[in-house]
Predict the structure.
Amino acid sequence: MSERISVVENIMGANDRLAEDNRARLDAAGVFAVNLMASPGAGKTSLIEQTLPRLADQLRLAVIDGDIATSIDADRAAAAGAVASVQINTGGQCHLDAVMLQQGLGQLDLSQIDLLLVENVGNLVCPADFRLGTHKSVLVASVPEGDDKPYKYPGMYRGVDALVINKTDLLPYIPFKMDYFRRGVEVLNAGLVTFPLSCKTGEGVDAWVAWIVENVQTFKR
Amino acid sequence: MHELPVTQSILEITLRHAQEAGATRVTDLYLVIGQLASVVDDSVQFYWDVLSKDTIAESSRLHFRRVPAEMQCLSCGTRFPLDGDDFACPSCQGVGVKVVAGEEFFLESIEVDGGQASPPNEGGNA
């Protein structure tokens, strides 16, 4: 005798529930967390290096770094002034998920932190599908990647709360059509707040840092 | 996406619901996948055959229902299907749009043998 059972359960539900736990834990500790995503080489770690010194006198910052291997990024974050930095080696997995963030949070004294930057594994596909429980998701794009990336990786561009366009100092040397790039972004994520900047020259970084500060202040209220 | 962890999750959900229903065998699964949820049917099917082996779901059939992507223009309100990879509104060419359908990814139902949850059926052998 065959029988149909209604299930209606989200396949990503287990990860999503853990992400909610992570969020509750961050909220309880008063830690504002940002998930930084980008392709490899876009400048996530450079952005962290530019961001930390500008905030060090007003916020206590920690960094969780997801990488397939090495602690190079966590070491760079520590050198740039993070009160704590944790390296998560994903052992081949191409994205962080809620379980890995949970483990990372366990290695931090959250009561000593105001802002947590989570550097996801360099990848424009998979990180978009796995919620972590952070408060904001930020994509770091960069000029040398090309202006067609919003069109090719819609899932990533659709899901973020802010967009950094790094390496603007290379615009004179690369055929990157900013209008074409921005149209692709607008279609996927109308009104997305965008920060063109250069981690090399420092141009534009202050506006990005101001956005972070504003978000932390709103969160703490 | 990640068809291996995704398929593991499908198996976990399936076995949990089958067990709750007291089923002895799972014969069919009905999955709903939105056009924008980047899941590859063939890949899920491949992992399913491997992972479901030696469980009560072995040899069960996967049925995929695809939900086409539907967008809504934030300027003029027009709802339109996603055509190719251009998300712009066909009525006003507006580029501010939101997704109203196509991101689904869930297990809708399963078909099992030996469940106890069937309504009592006089003279039946459920």
